[in-house]
Amino acid sequence: IIYRDLKPENIMLNSQGHVKLTDFGLCKESIHDGTVTHTFCGTIEYMAPEILMRSGHNRAVDWWSLGALMYDMLTGAPPFTGENRKKTIDKILKCKLSLPPYLTQEARDLLKRLLKRNASSRLGAGPGDAAEVQAHPFFRFINWEDLLARKVEPPFRPILQSADDVSQFDSKFTSQTPVDSPDDSTLSESANQVFLGFTYVAPSVLENIKEKFSFEPKIRSPRRIMDSPRTLPSPGWARSPLLPGVGPSVLHSPQEQAMDMSSVEQMDITSSSEASAPLPIRQPAGINHMKQQAYPLVAKRPEHLRMNL
After folding, report:
1. Strand ranges (DSSP E) for 214-283?
2. Does residue 118 carry a pLDDT above 80?
3. In-domain check, residue 41
4. φ/ψ of residue 283, rounded to 5
5. In this structure, is residue 37 part of a structural domain?
6. Which ranges constitute the DSSP H helices of 46-164?
7. Can you give the pLDDT at residue 163?
8. In angstroms, rounded to a whole number, what is the distance separating the alpha carbons of residues 208 and 33?
9. What is the distance between the alpha carbons of residues 246 and 201, in angstroms, rounded to a whole number?
């Protein structure tokens, strides 16, 4: 038999203070030497690599879970944890085991041998099974026969008023309304694999999204005109003329172009020839071309609109 769900939540104490395991729903029977099973089940932080890879597993997965549980009890957290389900799995399969310096040499050696990714070389995976683990120096002060016979005095014995006393449980859980477990699924094991991780919020899709999604179109930033001479104005926009005493030209929308032309005729645009027109284009040095008038149509303009060059 393989347990496949060893974790702190499934380890209880009876009224005498002795350890009891609960939740045998993931157990698998008749797993003898040389036989494997491929069911993907358990709690990610305590699952062995061969379960995650679906390469087939046997009773050696429980020894990995024991190593993860002991690491959790000695340090306060499982050995491999990530921000989400996918990253946790990646660390279990690839990351190096990190051991805090305050652990004893026996504890470090036991964790290393239990948390070997190669299941065949894992402590307890050999023909000796549990005897290999019991013989480790970390347990040298444990009398296993007395422990199994419940002759060892537990370090803690809960004080209970009755068989139904739940005062030792967190009120966060005892205040919840009990809900019956659903009936066994009628789907096959392979069909249930499609819904793996369904209770999570699409971890492989949304884990990198940092901003809130909105159906409203985003407002584009204004185009740069003054600091980028290659940036052209959008179609439908026109640049206002450069007038005397006025700063750099600005863009006007088509709606702003409609203005009273009579006000334009009253403007005196001949008062400053230096600011009324750009300088003529200078020919490259060394090239002798016939000089042409920069503005050949000036003479045909009305007198009050001519530019003095």
Report:
1. 238-239, 251-252
2. yes
3. yes
4. -70, 150
5. yes
6. 49-52, 60-75, 85-94, 105-114, 130-134, 144-148
7. 85
8. 44
9. 59
For 20, the 3-state DSSP assignment is: strand
d(CA 195, CA 191): 8
* Partners of residue 19 on adjacent β-strands: 13
Residue pair 309/301 in contact by the 8 Å Cβ criterion: no
Structural domain for 25, as ranges: 8-176
Report if residue 40 sits inside a domain.
Answer: yes
Q: Report the chain's mean pLDDT, rounded to a whole number.
A: 75
Q: Is residue 242 included in any domain, yes or no? A: no
Here the contacts of 232-239 (C-beta below 8 Å, separation 24 or greater) are: none
pLDDT in tens, 68-89: 999 999 999 999 999 999 999 9
Pick from 1, 17, 272, 260: nearest CA to 150? 17
Judged by DSSP in three states, 112 sits in helix
CATH at residue 64: 1.10.510.10
Q: Identify whether the C-beta of residue 110 lies closer than 8 Å to the C-beta of residue 68.
A: no
**Phi, psi dihedral angles at 251 (to 5 degrees):** -90, 140
Q: What is the pTM of this model?
A: 0.57
Number of structural domains the chain divides into: 1
φ, ψ of residue 20 to 5 degrees: the values are: -135, 140
Residue written as token pair 């926009």: 237
**Which tens digit of pLDDT belongs to each residue from 205-224?**
444 544 455 555 555 445 44
- The set of catalytic residues is 5
